[in-house]
Design goal:
It comes from Roseateles toxinivorans. By secondary structure, the chain is α/β, with parallel strands linked by helices. It folds into 2 domains: 135 residues, Rossmann fold; 174 residues, 3-Layer(aba) Sandwich (Rossmann fold), CATH 3.40.50.2000. Helices cover 45% and strands 16% of the residues. It has 15 helices and 12 strands. The strands form 2 sheets. Strands 2-1-3-4-5-6 form a 6-stranded parallel sheet, with helices on both faces. A 6-stranded parallel sheet has the order 9-8-7-10-11-12. Helix 4 runs antiparallel to helix 5. The longest helix is centred in the first third of the chain and has 21 residues. 42% of the residues are buried.
Amino acid sequence: MAASKQSFCIYCRPHEINDATFRYVEVIRHALVKAGLHDLGNTDSLKTARQASHVVTISCLAAARIVLGHHGARIIHWFQGIEAVERRYLHGGVKGYLRFLLWSCMERYLLKHAWLKLFVSEEMRDFLGDRSTPSSRSIVMPCYNASIDAPAFVGTDRYGRLDLVYAGSLYPWQCVIDVLQTYKQVLKLRPDARLTLFTREIERAQSLCDDAGLTGVQIMSVSPADLVQELRRFSFGFILRAEMSINRVSTPTKLSTYMAAGVIPVVTTATPALVSMLSNTAYKVVVAGPDAHADIANRICELSASSPNSPAVYRDYLAIFEQFMDDEVNAGRVAQVIGAG
């Protein structure tokens, strides 16, 4: 079929396009348009999807519906996470194990039959056992949801101050309790330090602070559109994760959100893709585990005491964005594969 006759759609439920997924999906969309395909838009209608030569899926269930209902489609599948393992983690007992088996089968099928596979890290591609060949196309593109905000780095001396921040949900794997315990250690070294939590779960966040014996922690809820602007005043942002396979393959969008606003990320080796992306900058805090509270506090204070230079931070972070989190670069890579197919 000639490229001019080809079309594509994003086949997903409306709720699956959210703050964490929107940017990634739009990069894929831009790539397909660049490759000459006609955009049929987002849809959860199998009837509409059958009109497309290429179907983008972002969950195993959606991909399975396309496999069963649109046999001739070229499936472009984004492996957001390791869904089978996630199901086992979220659901216990026999039901959890059965879900694990079912999702494992779907993942194996997509690894073998998807026309193009998108992974968020090399660790994910390795974990799932992707074996790329000329007829098995796959690309690694990390998750991100922000572009670098150059004015955020102008005329600021924030790094000598300790305005710490956590932005996100309060799920256990986000290690927010460890953030609070680390902050208690920071206060022993720098009583002038401050912590702000940006979360929609205001009451839950306050309860966690009370349990930790912390007062004066600022808790706020802001829209995703306003978050980068709000983050301009902070010096260090937490992305703590414990060692587990789900974290090992992930690239949390928090990294781009923090760095876009000039916030120095505090990460653990449990997310090696983040550590790799930060390998060429000194403006980071990398620790072994989220529960090393005193060590994390010491490293934050040491880096703050060195008073990082804002222009230098900007140069390093800009290079990271240009290499890993540039829409045009990533869309071009995907478009090249589409065009070659």
